[in-house]
Amino acid sequence: MRKLSPTSLKVGAGRVAAAGGLLALTALLPWLTRTDPALTVLHARYGDAPTTPKQLAEVRDQLGLGDGPFTFLGQWLRGLAHGDLGTSWVTGADVGADVSAGFHVSVSLMAYAMVVAVLVAVAVCLPALRRGRAEPPNGVVAGVLAALPEFLLASVLATLFAVRLGWFPAQGWASPASAVLPALALGLPAGAVLGRLAQDALPTAFAEPWVRTARANGMPRSRIARHAVRRALPAVLPQAGLTMVGLTGAAAAVEAVFAIPGLGGTAVAAALDLDLPLLQGCLLALLALGVVAAVAVELVRRRLLGPALRAGALPGAAPVRAGGRAATYASLALAAALLTVLVWGLTRDPLQVELTARLAPPSGAHPFGTDALGRDVLARLGHGALRTLATAAAVCAACWIVGIALGLTRWAKGPAEVANALPAILAGLLVTGLFGAGQTGAAVAVAAVGWAPLAAHTAALAETERASGHVEAALAQGAGRPHILRRHVLPGVLGPVTRHAALRLAPTTLALASLSFLGLGTQPPTPEWGRLLMENLPYAERAPWAVLAPAAALACVGALVALAGRRPLQGRRAVFIGGSAEPRRRGSRRG
After folding, report:
1. DSSP state letters, 188-246
2. Is the peptide bond prior to 544 cis by the omega test (within 30 degrees of 0)?
3. Per-residue DSSP letters for 67-105?
4. In 10 A of CB 10, how many CB atoms?
5. Alpha helices (H) in 258-357, listed in sequence order
6. Interacting residues of 242 by C-beta distance below 8 A, sequence separation 6+
7. Which CA distances in Å does 537 have to 199, 342, 516?
8. Dihedral angle sign, alpha carbons of residues 26, 32, 36, 42
9. Residues with Cβ < 8 Å from 572, sequence gap 6 or more?
């Protein structure tokens, strides 16, 4: 029997500790939010019917809440040991049956969405593979697709292809045709993110020394491209595993548009109703899926890296030359256009209500039209820019710091998998109980789950760098861990992870908006881009301008991030000459 390595033991211990902590926090949810679960359950069962103290006391006794949260958690764990997930507090149905049904639907939808995501990622990477050169890609298309809101895509696809053309079912989950539109809505942004990360890894692979040797020996370009894909995949595969879990548990908005009875919608409804047995059952299913996906991805990664990972013979991340002037000019022009629109909006009143001009089309008085309350869309777009982008940028920066710090350790994989499986709405409820509703609480909630993809990306890149030849040479010459980290590992990690964090600016904005829309974040009538989208989405067919304006602004931000990524951060690469561990810049003269 093969003995487990210390790293495997650390990862397993991290998974158990993080999963246990999450389940314990879930059991504390009513007490953290200072909400009476009995009252919430009665409202979920009977609507807004009047309640009496006697009814509340009876429900508390039925739910077993009189002895506190830890007694409830202990009872739930004892039932779990016997395969019993309990019964729903709201419906009285068996939790195991509900979770199993929702899990089957969500995993099926996730499989369809992953097919779409892989196809999109391949299409995004094809230009880089055809060039076969060590130059930064033009990731504008991927940046724009990654910035598109999933719920907006779902609504547009449902209106166009289901309602108007009648090509696919508009609602339900009855046949494979029912999965086409929701899979597209989920798979397009997810595939864009995976494709952009692969775009980032391919030029580094093409810059490695073996490519020059292969070309000198006459190896065909197609074969070189296949080997480059093999070298780039290990950095992207952990994101694919996290994406699988995210598409399963965080698809509540798309499931709601198409009335799909999936696990994501079930978990969100259980969290809002404080139906703890059903919520914990959903989280347990998501955690199990996360562990299975992580183990499978790790096996594939190690198969791709091969014996070179254990032998410390992997090539380090090679520098890639920055993009040309065209990308700089394009980014400056786009930034100037966006800034002009936003400044124009700042000169107008975002809170003035004109009921006689509700959903008015663009005109001289209202260049971008008005919303459902007659408020000027241009004004709300301009005034919401600073709040939206500043908050999202702060959250992305915090996730970047935490992701890199934890990703460089060897025990962060378990907590990252657990954080990725946690729906943002549940994190919002937990954080709101501690900090109260508001912009700060929403930002903390999104950051609490947003660091996981960056930590996984950092861990994958750092593992490859630590197994590279220049690190082995530095260790042989007595270099310490701080020197190895600063001069050898971080230069290959900072650039890709920084661009990854910037790529998540638009999704972070939408996550903050979803919490605000549920009353957990920024309160109305404060203008915010994500809130503009969600408030005006029901009127998209009648007044598309109210939705297109913030969507176009997010797409512009995504394009700017992609154009800025064409000038990657490059660190210093240590080159060892004649036994000297003195680092030099690539391209300098040999002494």
Report:
1. HHHHHHHHHHHHHHHHHHHTSHHHHHHHHTT--HHHHHHHHHHHHHHHHHHHHHHHHHH
2. no
3. T-HHHHHHHHHHHHHTT---B-TTT--BHHHHHHHHHHH
4. 16
5. 263-273, 276-305, 307-311, 325-346
6. 290, 293, 416, 417, 420, 452, 453, 456
7. 32, 21, 15
8. negative
9. 487, 491, 583, 584, 585
Distances (CA, A) of 1 to 90, 307, 527: 47, 21, 61
- What residue has token string 């001009």? 357
Tokens coding 52: 């009496």
Give the end-to-end CA distance of the chain in Å, rounded to a whole number: 52
- How many separate helices (H) and strands (E) can be counted in the chain? 26, 0
Which residue in 189, 194, 190, 203 sits closest to 144, CA to CA? 189
- Please answer whether residues 278 and 100 qualify as being in contact, where contact means their C-beta atoms are separated by less than 8 angstroms: no
Contact 438, 390 (CB under 8 A): no
**Separation in Å, CA 434 to CA 28, 425, 438:** 11, 14, 11
pLDDT of residue 109: 92
In angstroms, the Cα distances linking 453 to 29, 502, 532 are 25, 12, 27
Tokens of 439: 């912009």
What type of residue is 524? P
CA 343 to CA 162: how far, in whole Å? Answer: 39
Closest CA to 549 of 334, 389, 367: 367
Higher-confidence residue of 473 and 95: namely 95
Amino acid at the residue 109 = L
Read off the DSSP letter of residue 542: T
DSSP letter, residue 555: H
pLDDT digits (tens, 9 = 90+) for 229-250: 888 888 888 888 888 888 887 7
DSSP, res 519: T
**Collapsing DSSP states into helix, strand and coil, what is residue 57?**
helix
- What distance in Å separates the CA atoms of residue 389 and residue 25, rounded to the nearest whole number? 30
- Helical pair 545-564 and 377-407, crossing angle rounded to 10 deg: 40
- The answer to whether 74 and 25 have CB atoms below 8 angstroms apart is no
CA atoms in the 13 A half-sphere facing the CB of 315? 14
Token code pair at residue 491:
């230069």
What is this structure's pTM? 0.82
Q: What is the DSSP letter of 370?
A: B
- The torsion defined by the Cα of 203, 245, 509 and 261, in degrees rounded to 10, comes to 140
Q: φ, ψ for residue 557 (rounded to 5)?
A: -65, -45
Beta bridge partners of 87: 94
- The span from the CA of 234 to the CA of 186, in Å, is 23
Question: Distance of CA 131 to CAs 232, 359, 530, Å?
Answer: 15, 47, 37
Distance CA 206, CA 137 (A): 12
58-72, 288-302, 313-327: range with highest mean pLDDT:
288-302
Residue 512 near residue 395 (C-beta atoms within 8 A): yes
Alpha helix (H) ranges present in 408-544? 413-421, 424-435, 439-466, 469-476, 481-484, 490-503, 505-517, 529-536
Tokens linked to 133: 């050169």
CB atoms within 10 A of CB 223: 10
User: What rounded mean pLDDT belongs to the chain?
Assistant: 79
Local structure of residue 353 (DSSP, 8 states):
-
Rounded to the nearest 5 degrees, what angle is found at the Cα of 460, between the Cα atoms of 184 and 224?
Answer: 75
